[in-house]
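[AMINO ACID CHAIN]
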Amino acid sequence: MIIYFIVFLDRPKLNIKQTPRGDLIQGVDVTLTCTVDSRPYPHYIGWYNVTGLARQHFPFSNSTKTECSLKLSNIDILHSGTYQCEAFNGVGGSPVKRNKTIRVFGECMLGNLYSKSSLFCQILIRVELYMNVLFTSTF
């Protein structure tokens, strides 16, 4: 008697949960949790910030075979952006990715300019950082 086993393999399916939900205000803590459903279990699960100039990997505070959490503490407007959960289990040849965008609202001031707009504040801060780098690297 021959017994056959059928093994189903599938690429990871990702589900992202944000706590607390919705738009955020400066100073709070936020946790992004990525839950993975796949056979076999993923070889890795990771979080990345894909909004910045370079893809930045975040160490995660909690990781199991099927879940990975990223905790951002005391957030400010620079944390606004797109974060990406990535999981890979060998099926399909490439990692599966899912994005989560968070918006942080607050205030900023640069010289005489004052704004409560998250996007405008990000632009002001990035311009100030760029100008500081440009100014210090030319001398």
Remarks:
- The CA atoms of residues 5 and 123 lie 57 Å apart.
- The mean pLDDT is 77.
- Helices lie at 118-137.
